[in-house]
Amino acid sequence: MAMVCLSDFEAYAKKYLPKIAWDYFAAGADDCTTRDENILAYKRIRFWPRMLRDVSVMDIRTKILGSEISFPVGIAPTGFHQLAWPDGEKSTARAARAMNTCYIASTYSTCTLEEISTAAPGGLRWFQLYIHCNRAASQQLVQRAEALGFQGLVLTVDLPYTGKRRDDIRNGFCLPPHMKVKNLEGAFEVCKMSPLDPSVTWNDVYWLRSLTHLPIIIKGILTREDAELAVRHGVQGIIVSNHGGRQLDEGPATIDALVEVVEAVQGRVEVYVDGGIRKGSDVLKALALGAKCVFIGRPALWGLAYKGEEGLQDVLRILQDEFRLSMALAGCASVSEIGKHLVQFSKL
Amino acid sequence: MAMVCLSDFEAYAKKYLPKIAWDYFAAGADDCTTRDENILAYKRIRFWPRMLRDVSVMDIRTKILGSEISFPVGIAPTGFHQLAWPDGEKSTARAARAMNTCYIASTYSTCTLEEISTAAPGGLRWFQLYIHCNRAASQQLVQRAEALGFQGLVLTVDLPYTGKRRDDIRNGFCLPPHMKVKNLEGAFEVCKMSPLDPSVTWNDVYWLRSLTHLPIIIKGILTREDAELAVRHGVQGIIVSNHGGRQLDEGPATIDALVEVVEAVQGRVEVYVDGGIRKGSDVLKALALGAKCVFIGRPALWGLAYKGEEGLQDVLRILQDEFRLSMALAGCASVSEIGKHLVQFSKL
Amino acid sequence: MAMVCLSDFEAYAKKYLPKIAWDYFAAGADDCTTRDENILAYKRIRFWPRMLRDVSVMDIRTKILGSEISFPVGIAPTGFHQLAWPDGEKSTARAARAMNTCYIASTYSTCTLEEISTAAPGGLRWFQLYIHCNRAASQQLVQRAEALGFQGLVLTVDLPYTGKRRDDIRNGFCLPPHMKVKNLEGAFEVCKMSPLDPSVTWNDVYWLRSLTHLPIIIKGILTREDAELAVRHGVQGIIVSNHGGRQLDEGPATIDALVEVVEAVQGRVEVYVDGGIRKGSDVLKALALGAKCVFIGRPALWGLAYKGEEGLQDVLRILQDEFRLSMALAGCASVSEIGKHLVQFSKL
Amino acid sequence: MAMVCLSDFEAYAKKYLPKIAWDYFAAGADDCTTRDENILAYKRIRFWPRMLRDVSVMDIRTKILGSEISFPVGIAPTGFHQLAWPDGEKSTARAARAMNTCYIASTYSTCTLEEISTAAPGGLRWFQLYIHCNRAASQQLVQRAEALGFQGLVLTVDLPYTGKRRDDIRNGFCLPPHMKVKNLEGAFEVCKMSPLDPSVTWNDVYWLRSLTHLPIIIKGILTREDAELAVRHGVQGIIVSNHGGRQLDEGPATIDALVEVVEAVQGRVEVYVDGGIRKGSDVLKALALGAKCVFIGRPALWGLAYKGEEGLQDVLRILQDEFRLSMALAGCASVSEIGKHLVQFSKL
Predict the structure, then answer these.
(1) Low-confidence ranges of chain B (pLDDT < 70)
(2) Nearest-CA neighbor of D233 among D204, D264, D267, D213?
(3) Chains sharing 3 or more CB pairs under 8 A with chain C
(4) Is pLDDT at D189 greater than 60 in this prediction?
């Protein structure tokens, strides 16, 4: 079977992963409306491409928080990579480094931050954080990440409680005994749902600020009001995200929310988006609407499920080629030429 | 089979109820467009959730006409509960009381008001009334209900004649011989359709007012004009309802009509809504659009069909958990924080 | 099989008619988009019903061009009724008279005007006319109809050439040898397509006017401009029609065009509509939008196919019952209470 | 099997062509959204036809760049006609001449320009050009075409790189060994993708202008901005095209883009459109929206696949008959009567 586009990897993963793992990765909250909307919303955006521009030399690099990446696609934080591939997050880290892009390692990794660092020294990595009831545990994680050279801290704010994912309930989802949420070992027992602190508020961003010199990126913002608050609380970046449709169902597609957030932020901080990216042209759309970079979640897992580090590189390379081609066909030779004029929301 | 969400109960009921009973409960008028629209209209409403609010302590209680209920979901009046479960409305009354919510008992109950009262003393109950040609019969029902401690009178106004439900006609629907519309025994013969009085007008609300000290809630209003009339005729509450899509087909979905009614009423009386509630987040949407409480019809019957009182409690508990979770994920810690800002009608 | 609604008759006809006859009746032009739109457009209209009106005495009668009919549904002109039932148009005439409504007999009848008249003396009938190249033949038809007591002349204007109906071409559609277009016998040979005159213009309305004292109703108008021209040329009525979607495909649904025409006409002449009526509530919608009466085409043929005169009466009676019920449920006790306030075009 | 409409030819071609050839002709870029949108967009346009116009004498001829054609449908440039029929472009040229219309021969023909010319002397033909890295090769092609009597030069501008067509990648699409891109023989090796020059800009239109006296038509324009640039750079015509949806996926349907381009051009040059034409009424829509003529791509190939020259004539004749009929049914007797008033974009 030729792996031509990302849905080929999806089909592979669905076929070869254990059902409980596939279901966990695929899960959306409730009716999965938002999970699916993330994808459908991209299809409602039309390009209005320009012709006869010199696109013989294409430059698809960009910078996020000052670091150059080979193209504006990073790896979103997702949990439990060993469910997809035995080497887990170590493979993810290696693939991201090989493709010269950014990998956001999840708190819920099945490898430790130290293992991830050692697996791919020098790679650009951010660390994703939940604030736990046990604040000392969170503080320790932040300081470990900073010490290990992670270059950004991604605070997830849309999970005061875990969303209701029906298939996980039916399956009684739980990590197999030989896998562990290693970063948290000792601190808590993960299969007991959500040891996270639901009392967290904007003030805790100041607390987090006091713990680290790393830039703080806030993940899970969907409204202009919260975007404004994020800027006012001094974060360096915002990831527009609905947690892949796994938290509150029937919220907006992230690409729709991006428009609101970009308008509110007015360039004061960098804005990124995740959710629903399935083709290079989706990346182009997100950038045209103001995202500095996008992050992929499930497609990265499908790549891992296919062939570990190599499979994830395949996924990234396909996205890279498709992005470059769609840029050229839209008449843009470099990322700086991408703008709002390229796209229009279809009313249908 | 795990009962995870309300559609699990629907599937169970469809599988295990006699076809004639399932068809009767499921029936909509004509093409069932409005029945289905009630559900689809909820799916067109998008949440715009807020983050980083303290949702560690959740308060989902509310009050209807001064009585506290554990969460804003009551049991709508539906007929013939013995078709779903041998104990019929007695089980319904017990489940509602156990969950500390309101049960609107139907005129077309298969248990008497007295049996219902005795089954669950102290429960919060309203009585649903049609005005019959035989006014004395209606008067007697009102006075029995008041005497038995029912705390509200729900006048259904959308059934001057019974809607055309094709499957009931094909099935020749009729109660089995061992069931009776006990409240009306002697007074009329129910399988002869509609002994209801189609000449009823707004003036009859004054007549009803003269019979009882109970608050009057009018059920079946869909337009702003009728909402205004209801307020002017001194009712205490309005249930926006299209009778589950069983009367005039191709009227508005109730959640769409709610917006009109709430705008017309301007807080002068309480407004409730029924029809199409299938998830806790639907309750959140209805409250965001101005409903004080919602009522569930068919899902309560599915609960009964599953395991009687216990099954109905399961249904209510799932809705309660889902409602609480969706509130928290939307950033609301108490019902008073729910507002219009949370939702937007999708144009798609 | 119980015959509960019109689609039951459709299913019956599809099952029992010879394929060539079914296909001919069912045919739409090209992709059948307009044929199907006629029906879908009704589904996009929402009722906003009023409650607590006295609907104990229902009056569903109306008048068209001064003649009272039992309810606002007549029989549209369609050809070749013997394809549906051996007695053909004689059965149609009898059923229409029995139900006290108007039957528009087609030029392409398989019975003569005289046979139709004799079959149901005293029935309210209009005659549908094409203008043929052979004007003498048209003149003779008009005068025969007038002499036989037909009370209106319906000039069809949307068939300068026959639309492209793919199935008829594939089937090589042609009347069976024992059927004849009796009104035209001798005058032309019907299976040779369209002996109609494509040079007809508005001036020919004056010519027609000069031939007869009958009121002239023009059938096939879809735009406000043509409606204005019709009024100016002195017609008495307009039937908004797209020939059941059999002529120009991808024109407007008739219920959508009705709105335009009614607005243009401003009450100066009566406006009717055909196409897509499948339920009593569709009739209510058409009247709410300004039609004085509707005409049914294919459903009448299904009724004939089911049981001839009796089957057509069944169809009409179902429509009558449904119309009365939907009026009552919308809060109207008589046709004069029906108005624009009852309906709204859904944007979905 | 009767060949009644263009989809009959499509079905035939799908059934009888080798899969690799069918897939190549059918291919769209990525998800094929734009390919399919080209067709769907036509279905969203509604006619508002006028009645009682004299349509007894129909004149469907038009002129493009001064040359009369029998009706406003020409043959768009598509490659590799020998994949559809052994005689390839020679058959295409003969069919176009027989039907008295314009054939735009592709650079990627499997016959030489000389063979095409010889096959149908005197036919109206334009030559489609890509600008290659090897400019001398392009210049030579232009001069050969001009010398052979081609009357227009169509510069394709939407293919700086080849779009990603998944099926072609899966199939490893490549011409069979006995077929050659004969016009380019010696100059390049075609299965190595895109020897085209991606550095081409508007200035190269001046270069092209300097090579030839032929009118230049620019193909692949979708925006008003590029239409303005085309006019300013002195072209004689614009073909609104998205390359049959084979280049940038999720761009606009061509009929939607046509509206933009026509508005920008304001009659200064002729505007044509290709993509999605499947019925005569589609041609009428395109003309109503301002196109001077349309071009068909895939349907021409289906005609070839059916019966070579004869099959393509069948396709053209069906389109011609359908176009004439839809014009008449819309109330237009000549192309000059077609206008914007005939159509409206449906909001649904």
Answers:
(1) 186-194, 348
(2) D204
(3) B, D
(4) no
CB–CB contact D5 C251 (8 Å): no
DSSP H stretches of helix in chain A: 6-16, 19-26, 33-43, 89-98, 113-119, 135-147, 166-171, 203-211, 224-232, 254-265, 280-288, 298-330
pLDDT at C283 (0 to 100): 98
Interface check A74 vs B, CB under 8 A: no
CB contact under 8 A, B226 and C51: yes
With beta carbons less than 8 A apart as the criterion, state whether D323 and D283 touch: yes
Chains A and C touch (3+ CB pairs under 8 A): no
Residue D167 bridge partners (DSSP): none
Q: How close D329 comes to chain C (CA, Å)?
A: 6
Q: Are C89 and C81 in contact (CB under 8 A)?
A: yes
Residue B243 annotated in active site: yes
- The whole-number pLDDT of residue A97 equals 98
Angle at the Cα of D307 from the Cα atoms of D305 and D310, rounded to 5 degrees: 125
Residue C229: its chain D contacts at CB < 8 A?
A: 52
Query: Identity (one letter) of the amino acid at B14?
Result: K
Query: In the predicted model, is pLDDT for residue C188 greater than 70?
Result: no
State whether residue D179 sits within 8 Å of chain C by CB: no
| pLDDT of res. B187 | 57
Q: For residues D47 and D32, what is the distance between their CA atoms, to the nearest angstrom?
A: 27
Quickly tell me which residue has 């349309």 as its tokens.
D294
Q: Which residues of D touch C163 (CB under 8 A)?
A: 325, 329
Classify the phi-psi angles of D105: left when phi > 0, otherwise alpha if psi is within -120 to 50, otherwise beta: beta
In contact, C115 and C89? CB cutoff 8 Å: yes
Rounded mean pLDDT of D166-181? Answer: 95
CATH architecture for the domain at D6-46+57-338 = Alpha-Beta Barrel (3.20)
In angstroms, what CA-CA distances link A81 with A93, A184, A312? 11, 15, 12
Tens digit of each residue's pLDDT (9 = 90 or more) over A310-321: 999 999 999 999
D51, D56, D59: best mutation site toward chain C, by most C Cβ within 10 Å?
D51
pLDDT at C180 over 70: yes
Residue A23 backbone dihedrals phi, psi, to 5 degrees: -60, -40
Q: Does B39 reach chain A within 8 Å, measured CB to CB?
A: no
pLDDT value at residue B66: 98
Does the beta carbon of B53 lie under 8 angstroms from any beta carbon of chain A? yes
Taking alpha carbons only, the member of D207, D103, D114, D197 closest to residue D156 is D197
> Per the CB < 8 Å rule, is C201 touching D329?
no
State the best of B40, B43, B51 to mutate against chain A, taking most chain A CBs within 10 Å: B51
* pTM listed for this prediction: 0.96
What is the reported pLDDT for A183? 87
pLDDT averaged over chain A? Answer: 96
Is A330 a residue whose pLDDT tops 90? yes
Q: Is the pLDDT of residue D99 over 80?
A: yes
Q: Give the residue-averaged pLDDT of D181-192.
A: 65
**Where in chain D are the domains?**
6-46+57-338
Q: Binding residue per annotation — C20?
A: no
pLDDT tens-digit readout, C95-142: 999 999 999 999 999 999 999 999 999 999 999 999 999 899 899 999
Q: Does D30 touch chain A (CB under 8 A)?
A: yes
Question: Mean pLDDT of all residues in chain D?
Answer: 96
Q: What is the pLDDT of residue A216?
A: 98
Would you say residue D200 has pLDDT above 50? yes
CB contact under 8 A, B169 and C279: no
Cβ–Cβ < 8 Å for C61, C68 = yes
The one catalytic residue in C132, C178, C243, C341 is: C243
Inter-chain residue contact B30 with C347, CB threshold 8 Å: no
Q: Which of residues 265-284 of B touch A (CB under 8 A)?
A: 279, 281
